[in-house]
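Example for reference:
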Amino acid sequence: MTYGSGEDRLSKNARRVAAREKAKALREQQRRKERRNRFFLQGGIGLAIIAIVVVVAIVVIGSVKPSAPGPKNMLSDGITIGKEFKAVSTAAIPANGQPVPTTRDKKSSVVTIRIYLDYFCPVCNQFETANKDQISSWLKSGAATLEIHPVSFLDRESLGTRYSSRAANAAACVANYSPDDFWTFTQAMYANQPKELTAGLTNPQIIKVIEGAGVSNLSQISTCVNKETYKAWVTDATDRATHGPLPDANIKTVTGTPTIIVDGLQYVATDFGSAADFQAFVVQAAGASFNPGTTPTPTPTPIPTPTK
């Protein structure tokens, strides 16, 4: 049997120690590499999250509508037309401001009619066509005031042209620059109302309707229509009507057009094309002091019970 020398045994021990040290060094190197990879991975995720937050912030900021003032003579979000078709002058809703509701004199014999309408709404046209003569007679004599609130409910029906919003903007332009012509403008818009599920009237066609109605200050109104000066106000006013609360009304919100309020009570009609039904409701809502003039008075319909 042959035995190795002591130097051979020491050299084998040294080699084992060296091998262990090398393995240890490799493991430490691998751990450092893994730590670096984790750091870069976590850092990359963090940067990605920051990038996403920045993008979301930019989108949110870009989607916020800049606040702009509303039209003059529509401080309540509507324009009030009084005796001899004269509009009640008011300031405009300021930027970042809120509408100021019209205060009704409950002791007055003058009936207050408030209408939320869409110029693209065929039922609104039906109501206006049936009632324009008697409402005109009440306005002329001072027996009633009429507050008109244009809203945009039917943009979806105009093949992407946003006709309801553009028509409501045109109404705001007329209220601002020629308020005493507002009732005439409204009748002209309904006389030239396009059919639903069409593109509606173009801005030049709307201006032509306004011109044909004899509205004053056409140049300023035309610029206002083309620039959609009151686009933001139309959106805000429609939102306020649909979310409420409605002032001086026995309903909380506008859910459709036309919505008609007479001395605080909603007119619920089975036929918006019946002038006799509407007059009967007005007579009942206003009481015995209301004088509808020479228009024949039909049998009154029951007063609706105010909701709580």
Q: What stands out?
A: The chain has two domains: 1-64, 79-286. The chain has a mean pLDDT of 86. The beta strands are 79-81, 111-117, 144-150, 259-262, 265-266. The first strand starts at residue 79 and ends at 81.
